[in-house]
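Chain A, query sequence.
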Amino acid sequence: MKNSMLQLVVVMGLIMAAPAVASSDHGHGKHAAHGAQAGHEHQEMRTAEGVGIVQSIAQDGSSVLVAHEPITELRWPAMTMELALADPALAELVNTEDQIIFVLRQTGETDYEIVSLETID
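Chain A, predicted structure.
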């Protein structure tokens, strides 16, 4: 009798657990992953504004070397760095030694590109 009761408890436990196990793979895993991915895709890209002087321009228009002032939104100190241009046409708007104001957009965890710029008179 004791053995039958134990078997009944084990069987009841399995029966009760089966729907929970079955429903756990009812697409929730896919939806959870999709939701996380969708949230990442729809996440607004971080932007920041900077001021600097163009040191050089890549021949193919893909980037500019800029000596920029501190960019507090990104916690960047003043430095000289090569920054990618979102559109090579932006390179046509500036010359070496131009003082510019520019907007950076985050493209990766630590990567940024210039999405707009204009010269300062």
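The first strand starts at residue 47 and ends at 57. The beta strands are 47-57, 63-68, 79-85, 99-106, 112-119.
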